[in-house]
Design a protein that fits this description.
The complex is a heterodimer of chains A (about 90) and B (about 325). By secondary structure, chain A is mostly helical. Helices cover about 70% and strands about 0% of the residues of chain A. Chain A has one domain. In chain A, helix 2 runs parallel beside helix 4, helix 3 runs antiparallel to helix 4 and helix 4 packs across helix 5. Chain A is globular, with a radius of gyration of 12 Å. Chain B has about 325 residues and is of the alpha/beta class. In chain B, strands 1, 2, 3, 4, 7, 8, 9, 10 and 11 form a 9-stranded parallel β-sheet that branches. A two-stranded antiparallel sheet of chain B has the order 5-6. Classes of the chains: A mainly alpha (about 90), B alpha/beta (about 325).
Chain lengths: ~90, ~325
């Protein structure tokens, strides 16, 4: 499943807070250089427009954190009750 | 008019500092200052990315030095940056720090004259002056001009700590960046800047006077104080005896911290930092405590307050706390 498809399944009411939590993972991860420069620039593009909670913004964030810190990402998904996303994230 | 700035050290990945820059602009900060050390990421690369993702905030090196970077190159860099961020570029320049210069075998000769001439060269380059420049430190020939058009309004801020450099900032700077955090030190610095300005027949309000502080904010005082300890250890270690004595800080203790740091005994060095040292060399605490401290600093005559490293235990949270709980108080006042 594509990241965008996963994001579409996230309830709108959760997206703002979820984007904040995922951004925390990005900012606090030890090896941030794992995020490609092009992906980082996409995230900055959406952040500049205050659209990290949009479908496109979240898709990029999810893609970044899933590679950066899969364990923390899984924990956040659990916390938000998004267990299905947690389960499908690994094979992507 | 009060302004508020924030310093970032490009030790972290470019996208993180850029993220924080966008956050700071959105919250109403007025200026971004990026430190310039050869062992961190390049200051102008960092600034260019930041400029691309912002629209309003002013930004520039804080501070570069004329020993490692020739002033014609500084002029070229800020002028080029101004094309990316028209009218938003500021340029902080100071003598640099001896420890970093020592590492690359550069002697800090005649810092006052060097900074003065560097500022003159930068201004001449930006103004595309035709004649040659004959200083004692720098010379440029009549042909040493930019081949491109330049916005001539790039304010130059002089980073200063000692009385002579502060007076120079008052005499020739568009702004001064006072490297201190304690109200008494800043009050004395403002007096020196004023003296320098008066001697040069300038009005003090022609100089934007910034307190460039070591800053940390968190939900509570305890959490805010912890991250400033390493920064304060280095400040104590690098402070001259006159400053330590003035604040009743034991010179022996400072000497011990210096020795521990030099021998990479971080634990010993950091545990020797006490509350008085933190209060002397940083502005830190809860948002309310920081607001009070910043207010007392503005009473000394500064016009600009810069939150320098470490900012807080969590940078993103610290920027939010400052922007949402401290900044509105002062913006409302002005």
């Amino acid at each position: 499943m594509e990241y965008r498809e996963l994001v579409k399944s996230i309830p709108l009411t959760l997206r703002e807070t979820l984007s904040e939590k995922l951004m925390d993972i990005m900012l606090e991860a030890k090896d941030g250089s794992k995020v490609s420069s092009s992906l980082a620039k996409m995230i900055l593009f959406y952040w500049q427009r205050d659209q990290l909670a949009s479908e496109a913004g979240l898709t990029n964030l999810l893609k970044a954190v899933a590679g950066l810190d899969p364990i923390k990402t899984a924990t956040v998904m659990d916390d938000f009750g998004l267990k299905e996303i947690k389960l499908v994230l690994r094979p992507i | 008019m009060k302004s508020f700035g924030i310093e970032f050290v490009p030790m972290d990945l470019y996208w993180r500092t850029t993220y924080y820059t966008i956050q700071a602009e959105r919250l109403g900060y007025d200026s971004i200052w990026i430190t310039d050390h050869f062992n961190n990421r390049n200051v102008y690369v960092s600034l260019t990315v930041m400029a691309n993702y912002t629209n309003r905030i002013r930004l520039g090196p804080g501070v570069t030095n004329p020993y490692l970077v020739h002033p014609v190159m500084t002029a070229q860099s800020v002028a080029s940056l101004d094309e990316v961020a028209p009218g938003r570029v500021i340029c902080g320049i100071g003598a640099g720090d001896r420890t970093t210069l020592d590492m690359v075998g550069i002697e800090m000769k005649s810092p006052l004259r060097t900074v003065r001439e560097a500022v003159e060269v930068i201004r001449r380059q930006i103004a595309r002056e035709k004649g040659s420049y004959e200083g004692r430190v720098y010379t440029t020939s009549a042909g040493a001009r930019f081949n491109f058009k330049v916005n001539q309004n790039i304010p130059i801020y002089i980073g200063a700590q000692g009385p002579k450099m502060l007076r120079l900032a008052g005499a020739i700077g568009d702004g001064a960046l006072i490297n201190a955090s304690h109200p008494d030190d800043i009050e004395n610095a403002v007096k020196q800047i004023r003296r320098g300005a008066e001697k040069a027949n300038r009005k003090i309000n022609e100089v934007d006077i910034a307190a460039y502080t070591s800053f940390s904010v968190a939900d509570n005082e305890k959490n805010a104080r912890k991250p400033v300890i390493p920064v304060v250890a280095y400040i104590v270690a690098g402070s001259p005896p006159s400053i330590l004595e003035k604040h009743s800080i034991s010179i022996d203790k400072a000497e011990q911290i210096r020795s521990d740091l030099a021998n990479r005994r971080w634990g010993e060095a950091f545990s020797a930092v006490d509350s008085d040292m933190i209060d002397t060399f940083s502005v830190c605490g809860s948002p309310d405590q920081c607001t009070d401290k910043i207010e007392s600093l503005f009473k000394t005559g500064i016009t600009h307050f810069v939150t320098g490293s470490p900012l807080g235990p969590n940078i993103r949270a610290a920027i939010n706390l400052f922007g949402e709980e401290i900044l509105p108080y002062f913006k409302e006042l002005s």
